[in-house]
Description:
The complex is a heterodimer. By secondary structure, chain A is α/β, with parallel strands linked by helices. Helix content of chain A is 32%, strand content 20%. Chain A is built from 12 helices and 15 strands. In chain A, the strands form 3 sheets. A 10-stranded mixed sheet of chain A has the order 5-4-6-8-1-9-15-14-10-11, sandwiched between helices. A 3-stranded mixed sheet of chain A has the order 2-3-7. In chain A, helix 10 links the parallel strand 10 and strand 11 (316-317). In chain A, helix 7 (162-175) packs across helix 12 (330-344). Chain A starts with a strand and ends with a strand. By secondary structure, chain B is of the alpha/beta class. In chain B, 32% of the residues lie in helices and 20% in strands. Chain B is built from 11 helices and 11 strands. The radius of gyration of chain B is 20 Å and the shape is globular. The N and C termini of chain B lie close together (9 Å). Chains A and B meet through helix 5, helix 6, strand 5, helix 7 and helix 8 of A and helix 3, helix 4, helix 5, strand 3 and helix 6 of B.
Amino acid sequence: MSRIFITGMGLISAIGNTVAQNRKALSEGKCGITRLELFPSKYAGRLPCAEIGISTKALGLELNATEPGITRTTLLALHAFEEAILDGQLSAGQLTAPDTALIGSSTVGGMCLTDELYQDAQKKENGSEYINSYDCSSVTMYIQKRFEMTGIVNTINTACSSSANAIMYGARLIKSGLARRAIVGGADSLAKFTINGFNALHILSPFICSPFDEDRKGLNLGEGAAFLILEKEEDIVNKKVYASLTGYCNSNDAFHPSSLSAEGDGPYLSMKGALETAQLLPGSIGFINAHGTGTENNDLVESRAMLHLFNTPPPFASTKSNVGHTLGAAGAIEAIYGILNLYHQEIYPGLNCLKPIIETGLMPVESYKKISLQHVMSNSFGFGGNCTSLIFSRS
Amino acid sequence: MRPMFYIHQTACISPQQTFGEVDLTALHQPVDQRLKVIEPGYENIPPVILRRMSKSVRIGMGAALSLLKQFNIPDGIIMATANAGFEDCFQFLKQIVDYDEGILSPGSFVQSTPNALAAQLGMFTHNKSYNITHVHLGLAFENAMTDAGMLIKEHPANTYLLGAVDDISPYNYTLNFLAGWFKNELFVLEDLYDLDSPGSIGGEGAAMFLVNGSPMAAMAQVRAIGSVHSDDLDLVNQQLKHFLAKQLTAGEEIDLLLSGEDGDNRLLKYYASCEKMMGNEVAIMRFKHMFGEFPTSSALALWLACYILQKNPIPRHMVKKNIPGKEYKNILIYNTYKGAQHSFILVNRASAD
């Protein structure tokens, strides 16, 4: 079976509008979490959030995407998508070929327009321009239409592991012969809906988050988008290759709608399954980009699952301390961060952890390091117990 | 050609009598211009859990658990939906507005995610295996079927629970109504296809399938799926032609077209063109007057295809063109959602070749 290579990447987050800007910010330990300013909300100016500092209008103008009904989530997706296809040097012919798949993902979709949706859903007549834009698939379908793509198109929503599953699905399409290449990723933007939702669950930190710290107070929401181009090894001639996708596994924690089981069966099984797909032993993983949301529940359970599987876990960190929790986009954003770890043979510090969790004693990476890496794991766990782990390897 | 998967058991909760004792003879009419499901008793779900479930989760669980009664734990749960969770989503939106972003109850927020059904199924049956939710609107179920086909190719001995659910809450009804997708006028279902006006009738339903790679005692096999994203009639035609040429062996023919015609005169051209391509010897049946229009309605069409392949009686209200004495072995389901997404599904009687 031919290997699956990553040949193009695009990313926009609170710490940079491109992959290169993100890498620089990660290397410098930059944190993109500030106070919410993006839209009117009771929490504006108060709650720490990882916003992208470009207005929706400016994004639309920059991308020449000013059609009525286009949402911020779609614009973020388009931004990352354009960077990825440029970086991967995909020709117009390849983009529109019937064997090029597009797999998107989102949890918020057009619901970033919380107030508009509330009004439209109760009107008797005259719906707003966004009437067809609220669902998650509208983001993927905008890209499909704009680039006249004709291959398999799909949108996945498994909450916070959505785009990790998009990556896995794209790889499986290629392996099964249903696609020759796949453009995979996800996007989510900050919304009054999710801010109030996570707030109601009491898992939003009033401070900047501190993943894996004994005194962590919860997560900060972020926004962003990332897309990756997956191609078959044999199709690649004279082209930059970042890494290969060697392992993936999706499993369910089957415990609770919004928290993980004490022993972390789902996380353990997804990490273990990814190793099995990659045919690797735990000891070969050189770094883990942890899910590490900064909540009481996630960080403890993920630590326990890592201890269970690895005995002595490899160096790990959570980039959610840089870009917040970008929900449906997180899996793809963090996959790119893991690929950057491999490609540049370096690891970036996890921020704000002062005191490791007492029970586990696990401390995330504290400073930027050059390091020799062969295999990197990326974890994404979502509501509904949807856990997915990916493994990237040096190509 | 190797089929994608074999279907061994099916369950369907719909606006018609499709669950338990199936009886499609009498047509159940819409209420408030929408076709709402006939909900069963849910004896498998404890009342305290049932009360907290949204309608989409309830009907999805009801249909799925009826299959899992006999088959304990599938090797994965593959769900498709476009609006599951929307009812809770709106309840939470309402809280945000009513309480001015104050202290809110998180229940409806947690249930508002479309993966709630697959998650609840995993939790309820202690199933820790593959679990996914495809949400690609009018092709969500087609993508879920593709996923199931790939999984069976990857793990030939496994059995999967494949299904789809969509429900019609007042809120997604309103959004689609405002966008012009539902008819304004009052009518009886028998007249749906003759009104010559834009829009269809809103519907809902859940269909569940146990699928694997074994032809032994299977009800049906899904041979292939094709999909198109375009409103260009010529392109859709060309893709359908290409699909049939590729999938049908020499001399093999479609016996029955299950058409997704939905009474929207703007979409009629796609269905008319597909019918024309089928030729004179192909029977044509319709299903949207039974289930209504919703993004994953092709899952209910697949349930109907299995029902027909089992040689069950076909109600007269489904028949657009009858070919007397014909035995149905090869069924093509053609469906479009809003003219922008199209799918072709080739289903036939399971054969062990």
